[in-house]
What we know:
The protein is an alpha/beta fold. It has a single domain (2-213), classed as Aldolase class I (TIM Barrel, Alpha-Beta Barrel). Helix content is 36%, strand content 18%. It is built from 7 helices and 10 strands. An 8-stranded parallel barrel has the order 1-2-3-4-5-6-7-8, surrounded by 4 helices. The longest helix is centred in the C-terminal third of the chain and has 18 residues, at 196-213. The two termini are 13 Å apart. The mean pLDDT is 94.
Amino acid sequence: MIKIDGFRDVIAARAAVAAGAGAIGFILAPSRRQISPESIAAILGELSAGRPPVVGVFVNESPGAIDDIVRVSGVDVIQLAGDELPSILDRLDYPVWKALRFEVGTTIDEASRIVELWLSPSRPVKAVLVDAAVPGSYGGSGHVADWDLAARLAETYPVILAGGLTPANVAGAIESVRPFGVDVSSGVEVDGSKDPGLIQAFIEESLRAFALAG
Protein backbone atom coordinates (compact mmCIF):
# COMPACT_ATOMS: atom_id res chain seq x y z
CA MET A 1 0.00 0.00 0.00
CA ILE A 2 1.48 3.31 -1.11
CA LYS A 3 -0.05 6.46 0.36
CA ILE A 4 0.77 9.92 -0.95
CA ASP A 5 -0.22 12.52 1.64
CA GLY A 6 -0.87 16.24 1.92
CA PHE A 7 -2.62 17.12 -1.34
CA ARG A 8 -4.01 20.59 -1.92
CA ASP A 9 -4.85 20.53 -5.63
CA VAL A 10 -6.50 18.23 -8.12
CA ILE A 11 -3.56 18.10 -10.57
CA ALA A 12 -1.23 16.43 -8.07
CA ALA A 13 -4.01 14.16 -6.81
CA ARG A 14 -4.74 13.02 -10.37
CA ALA A 15 -1.03 12.33 -10.91
CA ALA A 16 -0.95 10.09 -7.83
CA VAL A 17 -4.05 8.18 -8.88
CA ALA A 18 -2.73 7.71 -12.42
CA ALA A 19 0.62 6.47 -11.09
CA GLY A 20 -1.03 3.80 -8.97
CA ALA A 21 -1.18 5.22 -5.45
CA GLY A 22 -2.91 2.90 -3.01
CA ALA A 23 -4.30 5.82 -1.01
CA ILE A 24 -4.27 9.61 -1.15
CA GLY A 25 -4.29 11.77 1.96
CA PHE A 26 -5.48 15.22 2.99
CA ILE A 27 -4.42 17.13 6.09
CA LEU A 28 -7.34 18.46 8.11
CA ALA A 29 -5.25 19.73 11.03
CA PRO A 30 -3.39 23.05 11.34
CA SER A 31 -0.43 22.75 8.96
CA ARG A 32 0.98 24.39 5.87
CA ARG A 33 -0.71 21.52 4.02
CA GLN A 34 -4.10 21.98 5.71
CA ILE A 35 -7.10 21.88 3.41
CA SER A 36 -10.79 22.49 4.06
CA PRO A 37 -13.39 19.71 3.90
CA GLU A 38 -15.14 21.58 1.09
CA SER A 39 -11.94 21.71 -0.97
CA ILE A 40 -11.40 17.98 -0.49
CA ALA A 41 -14.93 17.31 -1.73
CA ALA A 42 -14.27 19.47 -4.79
CA ILE A 43 -11.04 17.61 -5.60
CA LEU A 44 -12.67 14.20 -5.16
CA GLY A 45 -15.43 15.30 -7.50
CA GLU A 46 -12.78 15.72 -10.21
CA LEU A 47 -11.25 12.26 -9.75
CA SER A 48 -12.36 9.10 -11.49
CA ALA A 49 -14.84 6.73 -9.89
CA GLY A 50 -12.08 4.16 -9.53
CA ARG A 51 -9.94 6.36 -7.27
CA PRO A 52 -8.10 4.75 -4.33
CA PRO A 53 -9.25 5.22 -0.72
CA VAL A 54 -9.00 8.76 0.61
CA VAL A 55 -7.46 9.32 4.03
CA GLY A 56 -8.28 12.33 6.19
CA VAL A 57 -5.54 13.19 8.69
CA PHE A 58 -6.80 14.55 12.02
CA VAL A 59 -4.97 15.83 15.09
CA ASN A 60 -6.79 15.84 18.45
CA GLU A 61 -10.27 16.37 16.98
CA SER A 62 -13.42 15.31 18.81
CA PRO A 63 -15.48 12.44 17.37
CA GLY A 64 -18.29 14.89 16.63
CA ALA A 65 -16.00 17.19 14.66
CA ILE A 66 -14.60 14.21 12.77
CA ASP A 67 -18.14 13.10 11.86
CA ASP A 68 -18.95 16.56 10.49
CA ILE A 69 -15.74 16.76 8.46
CA VAL A 70 -16.17 13.28 7.01
CA ARG A 71 -19.73 14.10 5.98
CA VAL A 72 -18.63 17.21 4.08
CA SER A 73 -15.29 16.02 2.67
CA GLY A 74 -16.11 12.47 1.64
CA VAL A 75 -12.92 10.88 3.02
CA ASP A 76 -12.98 7.11 3.46
CA VAL A 77 -10.39 6.47 6.19
CA ILE A 78 -9.56 8.38 9.37
CA GLN A 79 -5.92 8.80 10.32
CA LEU A 80 -5.47 9.90 13.92
CA ALA A 81 -2.14 11.70 14.14
CA GLY A 82 -2.29 13.46 17.49
CA ASP A 83 -2.42 12.55 21.17
CA GLU A 84 -5.69 10.67 20.96
CA LEU A 85 -6.51 7.82 23.33
CA PRO A 86 -7.63 4.36 22.15
CA SER A 87 -11.04 4.94 23.77
CA ILE A 88 -11.91 7.27 20.87
CA LEU A 89 -12.27 4.22 18.61
CA ASP A 90 -15.56 3.25 20.22
CA ARG A 91 -17.01 6.56 18.98
CA LEU A 92 -15.83 6.38 15.37
CA ASP A 93 -17.70 4.47 12.67
CA TYR A 94 -14.95 4.56 10.04
CA PRO A 95 -11.80 2.59 9.23
CA VAL A 96 -9.03 4.13 11.34
CA TRP A 97 -5.25 4.29 11.10
CA LYS A 98 -3.22 5.54 14.06
CA ALA A 99 0.06 7.39 13.63
CA LEU A 100 2.59 6.59 16.36
CA ARG A 101 5.92 8.29 16.98
CA PHE A 102 8.42 6.48 19.19
CA GLU A 103 11.16 8.35 21.03
CA VAL A 104 14.77 7.33 20.49
CA GLY A 105 15.56 4.40 22.75
CA THR A 106 12.03 2.96 22.80
CA THR A 107 12.29 -0.82 23.14
CA ILE A 108 10.30 -3.28 21.09
CA ASP A 109 8.39 -4.33 24.21
CA GLU A 110 7.44 -0.74 25.00
CA ALA A 111 6.41 -0.04 21.41
CA SER A 112 4.42 -3.28 21.19
CA ARG A 113 2.46 -2.40 24.33
CA ILE A 114 1.46 0.91 22.77
CA VAL A 115 0.46 -0.71 19.49
CA GLU A 116 -1.58 -3.34 21.31
CA LEU A 117 -3.64 -0.62 22.97
CA TRP A 118 -4.86 0.41 19.52
CA LEU A 119 -5.54 -3.14 18.40
CA SER A 120 -7.42 -4.33 21.46
CA PRO A 121 -10.64 -2.21 21.46
CA SER A 122 -13.84 -3.60 19.99
CA ARG A 123 -13.11 -1.54 16.86
CA PRO A 124 -9.34 -1.88 16.42
CA VAL A 125 -7.37 0.26 13.99
CA LYS A 126 -6.70 -1.17 10.54
CA ALA A 127 -3.04 -0.13 10.60
CA VAL A 128 -0.46 1.73 12.66
CA LEU A 129 1.63 4.35 10.92
CA VAL A 130 5.15 4.53 12.37
CA ASP A 131 6.55 8.05 11.96
CA ALA A 132 9.58 9.96 13.23
CA ALA A 133 9.38 11.49 16.70
CA VAL A 134 10.08 15.22 16.28
CA PRO A 135 9.29 17.60 19.18
CA GLY A 136 6.38 19.87 18.32
CA SER A 137 5.51 17.99 15.13
CA TYR A 138 2.59 15.71 14.35
CA GLY A 139 4.07 14.51 11.06
CA GLY A 140 5.31 15.76 7.71
CA SER A 141 8.64 16.86 9.18
CA GLY A 142 10.82 15.00 6.68
CA HIS A 143 12.73 13.21 9.46
CA VAL A 144 13.38 9.47 9.15
CA ALA A 145 11.69 7.08 11.56
CA ASP A 146 13.48 4.31 13.45
CA TRP A 147 13.58 1.64 10.75
CA ASP A 148 14.95 -1.03 13.06
CA LEU A 149 12.07 -0.63 15.51
CA ALA A 150 9.56 -0.39 12.66
CA ALA A 151 10.90 -3.64 11.20
CA ARG A 152 10.44 -5.45 14.51
CA LEU A 153 6.88 -4.16 14.76
CA ALA A 154 6.13 -5.05 11.14
CA GLU A 155 6.88 -8.70 11.92
CA THR A 156 3.66 -8.79 13.96
CA TYR A 157 1.52 -5.75 13.17
CA PRO A 158 0.13 -3.98 10.07
CA VAL A 159 2.74 -1.20 9.90
CA ILE A 160 2.73 1.68 7.45
CA LEU A 161 6.17 3.29 7.42
CA ALA A 162 6.37 7.07 7.27
CA GLY A 163 8.96 9.71 8.01
CA GLY A 164 11.55 11.10 5.63
CA LEU A 165 10.83 8.74 2.74
CA THR A 166 11.81 9.81 -0.79
CA PRO A 167 12.12 8.17 -4.20
CA ALA A 168 15.81 7.67 -3.38
CA ASN A 169 15.40 5.78 -0.10
CA VAL A 170 11.98 4.13 -0.21
CA ALA A 171 13.24 0.92 -1.82
CA GLY A 172 15.81 0.49 0.94
CA ALA A 173 13.16 1.24 3.54
CA ILE A 174 10.83 -1.42 2.18
CA GLU A 175 13.67 -3.95 1.98
CA SER A 176 14.73 -3.21 5.57
CA VAL A 177 11.33 -2.85 7.26
CA ARG A 178 9.01 -4.96 5.07
CA PRO A 179 6.01 -2.87 6.06
CA PHE A 180 2.39 -3.29 5.03
CA GLY A 181 2.67 0.12 3.35
CA VAL A 182 4.60 3.37 2.99
CA ASP A 183 3.52 6.98 3.40
CA VAL A 184 5.14 10.09 1.91
CA SER A 185 4.45 13.81 1.87
CA SER A 186 7.48 16.13 1.92
CA GLY A 187 9.57 13.58 0.01
CA VAL A 188 7.57 14.21 -3.18
CA GLU A 189 7.53 17.99 -2.95
CA VAL A 190 9.49 20.75 -4.65
CA ASP A 191 9.39 24.13 -2.92
CA GLY A 192 6.52 22.95 -0.75
CA SER A 193 4.30 21.73 -3.59
CA LYS A 194 3.60 18.19 -4.73
CA ASP A 195 5.63 17.29 -7.82
CA PRO A 196 4.01 14.83 -10.27
CA GLY A 197 7.42 13.54 -11.40
CA LEU A 198 8.53 12.77 -7.85
CA ILE A 199 5.17 11.15 -7.10
CA GLN A 200 5.58 8.91 -10.14
CA ALA A 201 9.15 8.01 -9.16
CA PHE A 202 8.20 7.26 -5.55
CA ILE A 203 5.37 4.95 -6.57
CA GLU A 204 7.49 3.15 -9.17
CA GLU A 205 10.33 2.58 -6.70
CA SER A 206 7.88 1.42 -4.03
CA LEU A 207 6.09 -1.02 -6.34
CA ARG A 208 9.40 -2.48 -7.47
CA ALA A 209 10.61 -2.91 -3.90
CA PHE A 210 7.34 -4.46 -2.70
CA ALA A 211 7.48 -6.94 -5.59
CA LEU A 212 11.04 -7.94 -4.67
CA ALA A 213 10.10 -8.23 -1.00
CA GLY A 214 7.31 -10.62 -1.89
